[in-house]
Design a protein that fits this description.
Elements lengths: L3 H12 L3 H13 L1 H13 L2 H9 L1 H7 L1 H23 L16 H13 L3 H9 L11 H34 L3 H23 L4
Helix pairs in contact: 1-9, 2-3, 2-7, 2-9, 3-7, 3-9, 4-8, 4-9, 5-8, 6-10
């Protein structure tokens, strides 16, 4: 069940830059190391509903219901576009600036959680990722899915935290230049817009 193959597969998936990684990097640059931990924590807990859906078989329902899939998908698209706007707007939640006021950890975590919660492809992804690594014993399948999911979440939190620490370490150098901050904000806005476009094109 918990094999080296699973750990390697999960690591490759987690380390690949995606929406959660971009959000954690933005928060790390914007508000520092402690804030990036909250961002990583929020993104990690945003995985929980999808793991539950995969474990309970609800992911299959989402996959076969075009209406439900599209409702969640376009809510996710709208949210990513909102994040893009927040990166461009002066004083926005994701706008990188030297005099940024620190936010509460719970607010940072909530935004991170919503990024994953509003991505319906995650449920289908876990439904495809986890079953091949199960032992094949029906009576222990649910417990095994939970264990694999917990390991995946722990790995997600660890990797995202490292991303955040890296961004926080570069913060002082990057925030010393108005030009660099402008470039960063435009880049984050462009990335979130592109991710929203990609999500909009996804099909169940």
């Amino acid at each position: 069940m918990l094999s080296l193959q699973f750990l390697l597969t999960a690591f490759v998936v987690v380390v690949a830059p995606g929406t959660g990684v971009i959000y954690t990097l933005a928060i790390g640059l914007e508000q520092g190391r402690a804030a990036s931990i909250w961002a990583a924590l929020g993104c990690t807990f945003g995985i929980v509903p999808h793991l539950l859906a995969a474990t309970l078989g609800l992911a299959a329902v989402l996959h076969t219901s075009a209406v439900l899939f599209n409702v969640v998908k376009f809510a996710g698209v709208a949210y990513l576009l909102w994040l893009a706007l927040q990166a461009l707007r002066t004083g926005g939640a994701l706008a990188v600036s030297a005099d940024k006021t620190a936010e509460s950890g719970l607010r940072i975590a909530r935004r991170g959680a919503l990024i994953n919660i509003l991505n319906p492809k995650l449920s289908i992804f876990f439904l495809a990722l986890l079953p091949p690594f199960l032992s094949g014993t029906p009576t222990s399948a649910t417990a095994e899915m939970a264990i694999l999911g917990a390991v995946f979440m722990a790995m997600t939190f660890a990797v995202f935290t490292l991303y955040g620490f890296f961004a926080a370490a570069a913060r002082r150098w990057l925030l010393s230049s108005e030009r660099v901050m402008l470039w960063l904000n435009r880049s984050f806005a462009g990335i979130f817009t592109a991710l929203a476009g990609r999500l909009a094109l996804e099909r169940a």
